[in-house]
Design brief:
Elements: E1 7-13, H1 16-32, E2 37-43, H2 46-52, H3 66-73, E3 79-83, E4 95-99, E5 108-112, E6 126-128, H4 132-141, E7 146-148, H5 154-159, E8 167-171, H6 172-177, E9 186-187, E10 202-207, H7 211-218, H8 223-239, E11 247-254, E12 257-265, E13 272-280, H9 284-298, H10 300-305
Parallel strand pairs: 1-2, 1-3, 6-7, 6-8
Antiparallel strand pairs: 3-10, 4-10, 5-8, 5-9, 11-12, 12-13
Helix pairs in contact: 8-9
Length: 306
């Protein structure tokens, strides 16, 4: 593809982390097409507006992506960059998930006062998170903790540690992207806290009827990251559970061997159902279906119904 003289517009949220992610994708695109001109079309989403007003996070699919997708559909942007975990698994048929760049560390991280780990937090410590998945796993590990809902930018959540909170739990990838990884006092292993579907990955969307942009995105797509994303998202679809529920899914890939871990938790952490399956990456759909069936057989839907 000849990128000389071409200009594209990338829709992104306005937060520092989202802009960092958009610049990262821009750099990837320009590494393939040095003459490509890129302009960012920054927008405020429904989720961002609620965060700014200190309101409870609006539940529902796509609250951080709808405005970006609309910009694509009406022609105000050519591409949109999302955190993959914000992107609903039942996508708009008019849009295509054209690229998933190389995945960052999908782990969750604790940022606590006095460099404490989760085990070292005092009894009754106040830990901030609005994620039902994180809250359930924290309560299972430490029933004594007081889980405090927090929203807002990553920086604003970190600022509350020491002032009104003993710790917060955030995505480690976000810390790394903003150069704040030193604030992590513990990076959880998957056994300690299993990650959200798509955590650590970015998603770049284009219109399905725009072959020029889809060809561009194919050049920055990372096969391993894309396979892991497909496996994780397929598991959620098979479960029929939205990504805001206390459910975690994490895929790993070694050569052509795919391993898929998943859990469904009671919101209070009193019960956690787990499944793990491995097999050839070419059979990722079958592996995801097996994991989902394992969890359903254990009572996942009944557990979430509580």
């Amino acid at each position: 593809m000849d990128g000389g003289g071409a200009m594209i517009r990338i829709a992104t949220r306005r937060s520092a982390l989202a802009l960092c992610q958009a610049h990262y994708v821009s750099a990837l695109l320009q590494s393939r097409e040095p003459q490509l001109e890129i302009r960012l079309h920054d927008l405020t989403t429904e989720g961002d507006r609620a965060d700014a007003l200190g309101q409870p996070e609006p539940r529902g699919k796509g609250r951080y992506v709808r405005e970006l997708q609309h910009a694509l559909l009406v022609g105000d942007a050519d591409l949109a960059v999302h955190a993959l975990k914000d992107l609903p698994t039942d996508g708009d048929p008019r849009l295509s998930l054209g690229a998933i760049p190389p995945r960052s560390d999908p782990s969750d991280a604790l940022c606590a006062t006095a460099q404490r780990s989760l085990e070292q937090l005092p009894t009754g410590a106040r830990v901030g998170t609005s994620s039902l998945r994180r809250a359930a796993q924290l309560r299972a590990a430490r029933p004594d903790l007081a889980i405090v809902p927090v929203q807002g930018s990553l920086e604003s959540r970190l600022a509350r540690v020491g002032a009104e909170l003993d710790a917060v739990v955030v995505a480690y990838a976000g810390l790394v992207r903003l150069g704040l990884e030193a604030q992590a006092t513990q990076v959880f292993t998957p056994e300690q806290m299993l990650s959200a579907c798509g955590q650590g990955s970015l998603a770049v969307e284009a219109r399905r009827d725009d072959p020029i942009q889809l060809e561009r995105l194919a050049r920055i797509d990372d096969r391993e990251a894309h396979l892991m994303a497909l496996a994780e998202r397929s598991t959620l679809r098979q479960l029929g559970i939205h990504c805001e529920a206390p459910v975690a899914v994490l895929a790993s890939l070694k050569g052509e061997e795919l391993t898929l871990y998943a859990l469904v938790a009671a919101p209070d952490g009193s019960e956690i159902l787990r499944s793990r399956r491995s097999g050839p990456a070419a059979l990722l759909g079958k592996i995801a279906r097996g994991v989902a069936q394992d969890l359903v057989a254990q009572g996942a839907h009944k557990l979430l119904g509580k």
